[in-house]
Design goal:
The complex is a heterodimer of chains A (276) and B (200).
Chain A lengths: L6 H17 L8 H14 L5 H9 L5 H8 L10 H15 L5 E6 L5 H12 L6 E7 L2 H9 L1 E3 L3 H10 L10 E4 L2 E4 L7 E5 L11 E6 L8 H14 E9 L14 E5 L4 E4 L3
Parallel strand pairs in A: 1-2, 1-7, 2-6, 7-8
Antiparallel strand pairs in A: 3-5, 4-5, 8-10, 9-10
Helix pairs in contact in A: 1-2, 1-3
Chain B lengths: L11 E6 L3 H10 L9 E5 L6 H9 L6 E3 L11 E3 L5 E4 L5 E4 L11 H12 L3 E5 L8 H9 L3 E5 L8 H9 L4 E3 L1 H12 L7
Parallel strand pairs in B: 1-2, 1-7, 2-4, 3-4, 7-8, 8-9
Antiparallel strand pairs in B: 5-6
Helix pairs in contact in B: 1-6, 3-4, 4-5
Classes of the chains: A alpha/beta (276), B alpha/beta (200).
């Protein structure tokens, strides 16, 4: 490892400090390497020559938090991403969810909504949608607004149809959208029971009692301490016997809060809150 | 015994390859036998979703174990660690590995540029970067970042590479401290990892 902090690292720490002081936004628990790249891109996007210049603009009061957050958490997602995971949710989790009279699901970090709509389709096909409510939360308000619209580029439809079938879809993906010019508009019935809401995993607390928490590829951006704190929040949100599904390369092994969970399918990163 | 180069002795090796990369990795890992154990981090674009299968396959040729890189762990010395498919692999300033699903960089995820640039910041001059066969330009910027911070850049000789585009792009943008054919690559990296004793 290098022995002294690099100027780049110092600039990033100055950015983190400025975000805290001027916008009340706590980024201190974010993993630095990916944050560094994102802040560099944000500075570039907003026409600043460097992170230092962006920090100066923040200190002058010339920035808005939603715009900064939208530039920092650039959503990259797709429907039925990693189809085998959705297959496992269908086989191993939904039959158990069916035993509760009302089902509450929290998807943390929904970005532009592709995953929560995939989940909605899964619930529809299992006959569980009508008694489910889904909270889809994200820190990025621009992404949330897009998620709420449920309109996606038509060029994605073919890949998503394939992923839908690989995930064990029982109908045809085209049953769930209307094509219009270059876009597909998802069937509005899919969002009847989805509540989109702004929520910051770092600072906002538990707000529901859920049978399933889905949070894929969000924890990878956090350091160990924050990963552990957020896992604790998921634990406190879940009913006994409730399920947690993480991204397929995320690991629970370092977090003390993980002791509350047992693996249902370790490869699919599906866990269950122990009952005692 | 005094050691040459011990001040900046390599702490890690990062390797990138694309089209033709599987064969290239087999050849290089088969001839890589350093006495000193350092971590080897690899981005291979052509890796399928079955990374464990790829790791097992490479391990049959390699003196060192081969496995998937894991987030939140320090890279393990003496182990070849592959970037999982669909994720960028990054080295944190703290030395731990991390993953991201941020957008493609140089049309790729995992991207060689992302691994090389973050490794260059973490290891500074104590890093060896290797670009081999491939049909795109990923890795050129990353290799430049490694050289800029005093690390050692090795590029597979384009003339003998299975696909010359990637090594040629790296040479054009970053240049190299060494060029080597695939057959000489393992021995060259071995030499660079093991500090040589001075013979008076």
């Amino acid at each position: 490892m290098i022995d002294a902090p690099l100027p780049e690292h110092q600039a990033l720490e100055a950015f983190i400090e400025a975000m805290q002081t001027h916008h009340g936004m706590d980024l201190s628990g974010y993993a630095r390497a990916s944050l560094q790249r994102r802040v560099e891109q944000l500075a570039l996007r907003d026409g600043h020559a460097s992170i230092e210049a962006l920090v100066k603009a923040i200190r002058r009061g010339g920035t808005s938090l939603p715009a900064l957050v939208a530039g920092l958490s650039v959503p990259v997602t797709e429907m039925f991403r990693n189809p085998p995971i959705f297959q496992r949710l269908r086989e191993a989790v939904l039959p158990v969810l069916a035993s509760w009279p009302h089902i509450t699901i929290w998807q943390a970090g929904c970005a532009t909504g592709e995953e929560v709509y995939s989940l909605a389709i899964l619930l529809k096909e299992a006959g569980l949608y009508e008694r489910s409510q889904i909270f889809a939360t994200d820190i990025n308000e621009a992404a949330l607004a897009k998620a709420q619209e449920g309109i996606f580029p038509a060029r994605e439809a073919r890949a998503w149809s394939l992923a839908y079938r690989q995930a064990g879809g029982s109908g045809s993906f085209s049953d769930y959208y209307h094509a219009a010019y270059e876009h597909i508009r998802l069937d509005s019935r899919l969002k009847a029971n989805i509540h989109f809401a702004h929520h910051n995993l770092v600072t906002d607390g538990v707000f529901c009692e859920a049978q399933l928490v889905l949070c894929r590829n969000v924890l990878i951006y956090f350091n160990r301490e924050l990963q552990n704190a957020v896992l604790g929040r998921f634990r406190d949100s879940l009913v006994r016997g409730g399920f947690l599904c993480l991204g397929n390369r995320e690991s629970l092994s370092f977090a003390p809060a993980a002791k509350a969970f047992v693996a249902v399918d370790a490869e699919a990163r599906i866990y269950r809150l122990q009952t005692s | 015994m005094s050691l040459v180069g011990a001040v900046n002795a390599a702490e890690a090796v990062v390797m990138g390859c694309s089209a033709g990369g599987l064969h290239a990795l087999k050849v290089v890992l088969a001839t890589l036998r350093p006495a000193r154990k350092v971590p080897i981090l690899v981005v291979c674009h052509t890796a399928s979703d079955d990374l464990q299968g790829l790791a097992r396959l490479l391990e049959t040729c390699s003196a060192w174990p081969v496995r998937e890189a894991r987030e939140r762990e320090r890279p393990e010395p003496g182990v070849v660690q592959l970037a999982p498919s669909g994720y960028h692999l990054l080295v944190e300033p703290s030395g731990e590995l991390s993953l991201s699903v941020d957008g493609r960089v140089s049309f790729a995820r995992p991207s060689i540029d992302v691994l090389f640039e973050t490794a260059a910041m973490a290891y500074g001059p104590r890093l060896i970067g290797v670009i081999m066969t491939g049909a795109n330009h990923d890795g050129a910027r990353g290799l430049a970042a490694i050289r800029q911070r005093g690390g050692i850049a090795i590029v597979e000789t384009p003339a003998t590479a299975e696909v010359a585009t990637m090594p040629q792009a790296a040479l054009t943008l970053a240049g190299a401290d060494h060029q080597a054919s695939l057959e000489r690559m393992g021995a060259l990296i071995t030499q660079l990892i093991d500090p040589r004793p001075i013979h008076p």
